[in-house]
Specification:
210 residues, five-stranded mixed β-sheet, 7 strands, 17% strand
Length: 210
């Protein structure tokens, strides 16, 4: 109708996850319902665990009944390390410090803040991320785009289980991304953190997408 420039629409098609683009620009309900990643896209990104070394990590720290999840990505964006556990904070710090000394992003929300500070005393390439609705939306949309463009891959595991269960809802303040009530999203959050860290590792390292 001439309200939007074609160039703006095409740019949005490249920059936005499929679900968001369809609903915002085409007024079409997404075929996978409330799943932001797309079940078909998740399926296309399933590959065996990579045996290459990690160039970055994403870490989602446990809170109450949740699990700490550590995900490492190799230079091509394939998951090469997956750890999921429940331990006390001292053991958790030791497990993280035992990882290869490469860039990592760690969820520092709430009780995670002093844990990240402790790790930063030993590592200078650790970034703490405090999740809020806005930056979680940005990271999940970035992860959705990486999945839909097949720039990331992961083995069938708790990662794929959580990705397939994940959902988004529109609220008055924006889009809320989370696991359905009673389920976990620790692996999805760790993967999103690793994905964001990987973009920086690729930008400043000698790596490129294959």
């Amino acid at each position: 109708e001439g309200i939007l420039e074609l160039e703006e629409i095409e740019q949005a098609r490249r920059d936005l996850p499929e679900a968001v683009f369809k609903e915002l620009y085409l007024a079409e309900p997404y075929e996978d319902g409330s799943n932001p990643f797309g079940l078909q896209h998740i399926e296309q990104c399933k590959f065996p665990m990579s045996t290459m070394p990690a160039v970055c990590f994403g870490v989602d720290l446990a809170k109450s009944t949740d699990h700490t999840v550590i995900i490492g990505l190799d230079q091509f964006g394939s998951v090469c390390r997956l750890q999921r556990f429940q331990m006390d904070w001292r053991q958790t710090v030791q497990a993280i410090l035992a990882l290869p000394n490469v860039p990592m992003r760690i969820d520092s929300t709430g009780v995670g803040d002093p844990i990240v500070e402790e790790i930063q005393r030993h590592r200078n390439n650790v970034t703490g991320i405090k999740f809020n609705q806005w930056n979680k939306q940005q990271m999940m949309e970035g992860l959705a785009l990486s999945i839909q463009q097949r720039k990331i891959s992961f083995p069938p595991s708790v990662i794929t289980d959580e990705l397939e269960q994940f959902e988004f809802v529109y609220t008055r303040t924006g889009v809320k991304y989370s696991a359905p009530e009673g389920l976990h999203d620790d692996a999805v959050c760790a993967l999103a953190l690793a994905n964001e860290c990987h973009k920086t590792a690729v930008s400043f390292g000698n790596y490129s997408w294959a």
